């Protein structure tokens, strides 16, 4: 009994710093944001309780609707992000010529700061940048304002930049999943004549089902909560509101316009939205698994 109490005490002492940091930097700010979502507050003076006024304003806010639409369009691009990483991981797993070099080079963009990536691609994608000049030389129409300055191309271009930045992490995740699949399964599929797309669809995807589900949930959450730096550096939500995202609108309302209460309401709405989407994803995965 004494040994058990001693072990429990030691475990608590080891966990205490992490729990304390979690409380200070996660739990307390989250509770504070939820509380101030029902107030009008400039971040300095006294907060005044206004009930659901911020949320009513949020539902009538056209900028919020546009930002939410853009976020949902990014979610629709998640299958593309998964497909690219999965195919590249499969090529590396099959040890194509130069696979060791590609394994390292694919991961390189993932270790770069989003600020660096955003600055680099902003320069590359200007109307007079090297990408535009190269495409124009082969007859591809180039937007006069640049790829990030045209409302029709800004968001698709941003999707491709984000893909370049994160596909390496997906490759690592899928390589780890492929390493856990018995090689005999792939050998048997080849003997049965499964090649190309048939091998990918009927063998690889079922074998990596749980890995794909795990990575898809991460990407959905990431697309709502981790793209601020890209938007801040590359487009600032423009042109117009073509690349405005909810998390960037939170920043603008809270820190540019000093509408901290409204910013907290936006943050609360974003939290509930992401939580709901993750619940739906997990529910669908569980239902498919039970059905199987």
What does this structure look like?
By secondary structure, the chain is mainly α. It has a domain at 61-244: Orthogonal Bundle (MetI-like fold). It has 14 helices and two strands, in the order H-E-E-H-H-H-H-H-H-H-H-H-H-H-H-H. A two-stranded antiparallel ribbon has the order 1-2. A hairpin with a 7-residue loop joins strand 1 and strand 2 (48-49). Helix 1 (2-36) packs across helix 14 (260-291) and helix 13 runs antiparallel to helix 14. The longest helix is centred in the N-terminal third of the chain and has 35 residues, at 2-36. The radius of gyration is 23 Å and the shape is globular. 27% of the residues are buried. The mean pLDDT is 89.
- Give the CATH topology of the domain at 61-244: MetI-like fold
Shape-level CATH architecture of the domain at 61-244: Orthogonal Bundle
- Bin the strand percentage: under 5%
The CATH class label of the domain at 61-244 is Mainly Alpha
CATH superfamily of the domain at 61-244: MetI-like
Shape: globular
Give the terminus-to-terminus CA distance. 46 Å
Structural class: mainly alpha
User: Could you spell the SSE succession in H and E letters?
Assistant: HEEHHHHHHHHHHHHH
Low-pLDDT parts are: none
For the largest beta-sheet, the strand count, sense and barrel status come to: 2 strands, antiparallel
Largest sheet: spatial strand order: 1-2
Radius of gyration equals 23 Å
Number of helical elements: 14
List keywords for this structure.
two-stranded antiparallel ribbon; 14 helices; MetI-like fold; mainly alpha; single chain; globular; 292 residues
